[in-house]
Amino acid sequence: MKWSFIIQQKLKAALLLTAIMALIILSTFISRSNIRGMDNSFSAIYEDRLVPTIDIVYISENLYHKRIALSRHFLSDTRVTSPAIKVQLQAHNQCIDSLINAFEKTNLVKEESASLSALKSHIKAYTSLEQNVLQLLEADNKKAGQELFEQQGTLVFQQAIKQLNKLTKIQSVVGQKLLKDSHSEAIQFQAVSTFQITIAIVIGLLILGLIHSAKITDRGNQPFHLN
After folding, report:
1. How far is it, in rounded angstroms, from Cα 214 to Cα 208?
2. Secondary structure (H, E, C), 112-177
3. DSSP letter at 221?
4. H helices then E strands: how many in the chain?
5. What residues contact residue 211 under an 8 Å CB cut-off, 6+ apart?
6. I want to staple 20 with a disulfide (CB 3.0 to 4.6 A). Which of 124, 158, 198, 203 is the partner?
7. How does pLDDT run across 121-159, given as a tens digit for each residue?
8. How far apart are CA 137 and CA 42, in angstroms?
9. Phi, psi of 98 (to 5 degrees)
């Protein structure tokens, strides 16, 4: 009877230990998944949100520099068909293309892809319009060139800036969602950690109780002459 009870207690202890190991392993996998999710979210916030937002600022800056450069030449007596203005505009165009190519390599949501595609179309239209303005100036038709630049050029320029602003808003919305997801995963990780500690304490107390019960039974079954 004594050995049967001890074996039962050991089996209970073994089952409890197996249960705690299984729970710890399961919660560890959940914790790793939460940590991986938080790491991915933070990486996405930097690589796919913060960096592209900076690129948007630089794209906008280059567009404004191009417009200012061409506008200044209309106000000066210098021929706008000089190599200097063409080189300047080409440098800004190359910078814009490089920034857009970098933007396209990031993880884009559906709204970003559509807005970026529209932005590329507006920038392409504005670049083509600049070339038309330069051709009119080369043909010594400054008035027509200036009208094209100030009227249609202003419209296309504003459309490009509008798309840049739209991209910025999308970046903000998606970034906020990523932060919310990271916060949720952090809460889950904290809950799992608390669960691990609680389970470990409860099962540890149960095991101590089983051991203590086995000792009392063992003492109670000792021969009378040993008491």
Report:
1. 10
2. HHHHHHHHHHHHHHHHHHHHHHHHHHHCCCHHHHHHHHHCHHHHHHHHHHHHHHHHHHHHHHHHHH
3. T
4. 6, 0
5. 9, 13
6. 203
7. 999 999 999 999 988 888 888 888 889 998 999 999 999
8. 51
9. -65, -40
